[in-house]
Specification:
The protein is an alpha/beta fold and 262 residues long. The protein contains five helices and nine strands. Strand 1, helix 1 and strand 2 form a beta-alpha-beta unit.
Length: 262
């Protein structure tokens, strides 16, 4: 494992819709001498940055392609359908994929939802990005299903969104190159997992710091004194009370007065 001294700063990539501010604040509190640089990237760019060494870790959306990247799932997002405010879907609280069967549902090239079967009718051409698809929804061309944070990111006054009950959910994860699991990466893992500052900052406890177990051959024999000569008598056993000490014998029932004559 590479020591933190090899990386004077920490570079964190994050994809649209993910808000890393809470974890960045904790990082700045715990590691004020190690600056954290945020890198806003698309999903594809974030994986390229991790593999190319341009980012130490990234907040990405699953699935993570390939076996060279490690990933820890953090949370799951509900998927929603983005519609114009005057669309019939805007009048209900939630919909199913079947409810969108008669609508054109846009499927941008950067979509991260793992669909088994896309809802609705396909558009003639797939938009290049989610932002392009949102513009098409506003123009009345079709609808768009995205993670809820993406819908909030692209909020417009003329659009709204509703949950899709049976759409695949989006999972956000922390990912990093497996071969570059540095101390700073371990520190950030500890932060996103909610570990306290006293838990070795998320790092593995060194074996030298653990208390060694007591050797059986040095254990004190049961039933024998731990110190002093074995079998030595107590020097005060059987002796009277020490000078100035009060007697512990009870005087209850003792007769007072002169002794009887014979």
């Amino acid at each position: 494992m590479t020591g933190s001294e090899d990386s004077p700063s920490f570079r964190l990539a994050y994809v649209p819709g993910v808000t890393p501010s809470k974890w960045v604040r904790i990082w700045n509190e715990r590691l004020p001498d190690v600056p954290l640089t945020l890198l806003a990237m698309s999903v594809g760019e974030s994986f390229d940055a991790l593999r190319g060494g341009d980012a130490d870790a990234g907040l990405v959306r699953l699935p993570v392609d390939g076996t060279d990247l490690s990933a820890i799932p953090l949370y799951t997002e509900t998927s929603v359908v983005v519609v114009p405010k005057d669309h019939v879907v805007a009048a209900v609280d939630e919909v199913s994929a079947e409810d969108l069967a008669d609508d054109i549902v846009l499927h941008p090239l950067d979509d991260t939802l793992d669909w088994e079967r896309l809802p609705g009718r396909p558009a003639i051409e797939r938009p290049a990005t989610t932002a392009d698809a949102v513009d098409l929804v506003a123009a009345g061309v079709g609808l768009l299903v995205v993670p809820q944070s993406i819908a909030r990111l692209h909020h417009r006054k003329d659009l709204t969104y509703r949950p899709v009950t049976d759409a695949p959910e989006s999972r956000v994860a922390l990912s990093w190159p497996e071969e570059r699991t540095t101390d700073l990466v371990e520190d950030f893992i500890g932060i996103v997992r909610g570990r306290t500052v006293n838990s070795s900052r998320g790092r593995t406890q060194p074996a030298a710091e653990q208390k060694p177990a007591r050797s059986p051959d040095k254990a004190t024999p049961r039933g024998k004194p731990a110190t002093g000569r074995t079998g030595a008598k107590n020097p005060r056993r059987g002796a009277g009370p020490a000078k100035g000490a009060k007697s512990t014998k009870s005087t209850k029932g003792a007769k007072r007065g002169k002794p009887r004559g014979r």
